[in-house]
């Protein structure tokens, strides 16, 4: 009973976190699309997409691998302090590497090159995230720390944006406000670690490098997952225009915000699944939430026009058919998330989870290239490709689940092997 209460509590806090992650962009999006030109908002969205890649590189899967290390070491203070210290150093090394990659991208991509200062300031926020120690609080199952910190951080940056960003001339204020609010979040994280009586300890560079290697399988999976949504945006910026980036990004921001609601469900159950491999828990969650997801997809289709008008204004109504074409991503995306790390990761099939993602991304890239070669690179066709690859993504993960379901504790799960 206590375990179930803990899962419910952590899932609830992560749900609150992801509601906040959905709420704040939906508050700022209508404001920015109205005070900024379409091209300027396209720049904001494009740089944000590039930063999602930088964030994945800096995180390098530690949110899963280091969380697992914390779970295993939390009853040994000295070992736990070394996990914290070695993870921080590993992420700092990755942060320096990500900066070098970003400098190459700035030189290569026109939109970044024309907005180099904005891009570099945006990266400061990514580097600051190293010290938020999300893996620690997830592993210790004190998710409220992450949730409260995020709400404070985003409230600050949102209020400053509303107060001071009034036109394209104020574009640089956006990353500056993010830097300030992220610094506040870092200080809150440091305070929580101090309250826990933990003092990070660094073993050595070799150990930090080993932690990076151990996290590599998670990194490839997360990097591939990000590629689904981000890669299309990057290519649109090169192949079409900043305005098309803006239209696509508004659609994807809605899709990502809704999908963000799936993450707390998966993250909340992940620690318990590692410990118990309880298949009944997964089956129960799917039975409860899948009908809600289906109803939500129907409502999203019906009210797509109204929603797009509220978020972007009349200029963005041309993106309504694109958003409707993306709705299958919402349905199959829930299943892909649930049958990923909470299922395959919990039984030690990280490579299979990663394989499913990589295969789907390869298909995604191949289809995008086909669109370019056949001169069919339109937003509608890109949305079709994205929906198809999400279906394939879930299909591969479900195949591995069926293949390895004997590794679960199926007691009271209503399954036969």
Furnish the topology, listing elements before pairings.
Blueprint: H1 2-35, H2 38-59, H3 62-73, H4 77-108, H5 110-113, H6 116-128, H7 134-139, H8 143-164, H9 173-195, H10 205-214, H11 216-239, H12 242-260, H13 262-276, H14 279-302, H15 304-312, H16 320-325, H17 327-338, H18 350-373, H19 379-404
Helix pairs in contact: 1-8, 1-12, 1-13, 2-4, 2-6, 2-11, 2-12, 3-4, 4-6, 4-10, 6-9, 8-9, 11-12, 11-18, 11-19, 13-17, 14-17, 17-19, 18-19
Note the main attributes of this structure.
mainly alpha, 417 residues, single chain
What would your notes on this structure say?
This protein has 19 helices and no strands. The chain has helices spanning 2-35, 38-59, 62-73, 77-108, 110-113, 116-128, 134-139, 143-164, 173-195, 205-214, 216-239, 242-260, 262-276, 279-302, 304-312, 320-325, 327-338, 350-373, 379-404.
Summarize the structure.
The chain is an all-alpha fold and 417 residues long. Helices cover 81% and strands 0% of the residues.
Which secondary-structure class do the elements indicate? mainly alpha
Q: Per the principal axes of the C-alpha atoms, what is the gross shape?
A: globular
Element order: H for helix, E for strand? HHHHHHHHHHHHHHHHHHH
Q: What is the number of beta strands?
A: 0
| Helicity, as a percent range | over 70%
Radius of gyration: 21 Å
Distance between the termini: 27 Å
Unreliably modeled segments: 412-417
> In percent, how much strand structure appears in the residues?
under 5%
Put simply, the count of helices is: 19
Mean pLDDT: 86
Major sheet size, sense and barrel closure: none
